Amino acid sequence: MTLISFVVPAFRVQGYLRECLDSILGQPETDLEVIAVDDCSPDASGEIIDEYAARDQRVRSVRLPENVGLGPARNVGLDRAVGEYVWFLDGDDWLAPECLPEVAERLRATRPDVLLVDHVRTHWNDTATHSAMAEVFPETPGTATFRLRDRPETMRLLHTAWNRLVRREFLVDLGLRFAPGWYEDVSFSYPVLMAAQRIGVLDRVCVNYRQRRAGAITRTRGDRHFEVFPQWHRVFHLMDDWGSTADDLRPAVFERMIWHYLTVLGNGQRIAPELRPAFFAQITADYARWLPTEGYPVPDGVEGIKHRLVAAGRWRTFSALRAASRARDAARRRARTARRRVGPAARRSARLTRDGLLREYYRAELRRPVDPTLAVYAAYWYRGYSCNPAAIYEVARRLAPGVRGVWIVRRDRVDAVPAGAEYVVAGTPAYYRVLARARWLINNVNFPDFVRKRPEQVHVQTHHGTPVKVMGLDQQRYPIGAGRMDFAGLLRRVDRWDYSVSANSFSTQMWDRAYPAAYTTLEVGYPRNDRLVTADPDEVRRLRAEFGLRPDEQVVLYAPTHREHLPGYRPPFDPDRLVDALGDSGRLLMRSHYFHDRDRRHRRPVDRERVRDVSGHQRVEDLYLVADVLVTDYSSAMFDYAVLDRPIVLYAPDWEAYRLARGVYFDVTAEPPGAVATTFAELLDLFRTDAVRSEAADSARERFRGRFCGLDDGRAAERVVRRVFLGERAEPSSNC
């Protein structure tokens, strides 16, 4: 018999599900199965589950035809489980490395009905909060098992399904199921403990309980939080059915119920102010209904006062106590902030500077009406006219002619703006004016921190590549690559987004976890790649002629990415040796990353008869179209160039160091877009032997294109324009 059956329900967890499944399947203990239940999720969760099931026989995929909710989805998994123990792990949480052998050893040695394991709350800012395990059990119970009535303090551990393994036969005999609705753990976890004859505790952190910044029910306001009441009612009805055998547990269970109700009420992210009186009234009603005749252990201090106010139904006093506590906390925060502020003289001096005056001008413009016809575009920190914003701008001029598009560019990049395109120079009064008054702001990076999101404004984040390297909050785990990134500031900028444009399902999944916020994802393909799809042979011939490239020449484009953690690093690459390997008809175009644009002014260009530095060329799509082969490393260029279905060579001489220091989302050497070389000698051999066009390389490219390029049909920009500017919505998905 399989020892452990993991039941993993999945709904809107596409950004986290891979980490969850990998944390299970990568454990040293392999006597397990995973029943992953797609609860008719509208994102890519189901596809991810199918992918894992196809490559690991321990994973079983269950796709539900309609959304049933977390509790019923767990029941579906339970019905299919065959393991001796069942572990319900949520799809956005993950196991601690190397924990499973110790869990398995304890299960085999003690055969408990329930084994409780420790966890940490892992927050979006990469900090962790310990559980109450050490407080509940100052001295660990060790390997001993016990009944709940012998250790009632056990109920003070978090009442979730995922911090306990339950013997499946015990669960089936008990006939206990998860109830529908929110807070479904309550009516499962407490009865399991009350009925168990053998409870074990493993004092080892096994679960990372993800505290999501967006998307979790604990951060969702609404009246569905009232569903906590019927869940607790089920617990007491079950104790009534069990009769006197549960009477000695009623006081402790009752105390937990009131504690839980007050926890939900006290969370401003759950209960809106207008709903709090009704929620409090229901707590008072349940207090009177379920109060044990022999009483219960009332907490000391402020918590005890809250319990007495609940018993008396005194909402106004309770509310005033809460308001006074919040005011006291706010005053302390203001005092701390005041101590950190710069003195008044320094502030007055700053306001006299030019930037200070311009910011005042910006704030004044914010008080003027938003221009309902104005759209502002920017790309790569104002480096010019390019990328997804440029593609959207061009289609908007055709489909939404009533929208006036204005570009923001640096003063040294004015020449890059095409004739007829309106622009303002960054840092000028006109710049601040359009930022303050534009209806739409479209950028492939974030606007500066001072930009304030007005309610009437629409921010469109187009991004500028499918990610290989980790991005956003995920960089917290790789401090060398993150440098001095201000993650709190990053999230303030992300909160301005209304739309996030995604090139493919993989990008959507990664953006969900890297940039958690309430924006709407537009998974439409990349607008900048439309041109790669629609360009005809005549355009390619014209471009090659402009670059001075003959039709019979083999043109190789070399486009490596930069290394944030190694500013001076350049991959080992000898252009002369490469063109020798290409033969007499070979030409090499070299393009450095745009982050190096200022460095290029002080560097001698590599321009020889058969080698040309094209780093200064504004539209990278031109370079893709003229190139016969792309050589790159971890750059998003590979995803764009794959649209053309031409050979790609992955040249990754520092792969292991890069993935450890910078962090990556997937092993691009194991799932490459074509042939792979890890040394310069291997790169030369690929061209000398023409292995860049081998059957293996072609097959790899086909798989890569299938995964990343399926949406690039030449209409991505149109889909963005129709949704953002014209308000048109795509037909809803028919997955469920």
UniProtKB/TrEMBL annotation:
SUPFAM superfamilies: Nucleotide-diphospho-sugar transferases, UDP-Glycosyltransferase/glycogen phosphorylase. Residues 5-160 form the Glycosyltransferase 2-like domain. It is found in: Cell membrane. Gene3D superfamilies: 3.40.50.11820, 3.40.50.12580, Spore Coat Polysaccharide Biosynthesis Protein SpsA, Chain A (3.90.550.10). It is a peripheral membrane protein. InterPro entries: Glycerophosphate_synth, Glyco_trans_2-like, Nucleotide-diphossugar_trans, TagF_C, TagF_N, Teichoic_Acid_Biosynth. Its main location: membrane. Coiled coil: none annotated. The keyword Transferase applies. Keywords: Cell membrane, Membrane, Teichoic acid biosynthesis, Transferase. The keyword Cell membrane applies. Belongs to the CDP-glycerol glycerophosphotransferase family. This is CDP-glycerol glycerophosphotransferase family protein. It comes from Micromonospora vulcania.
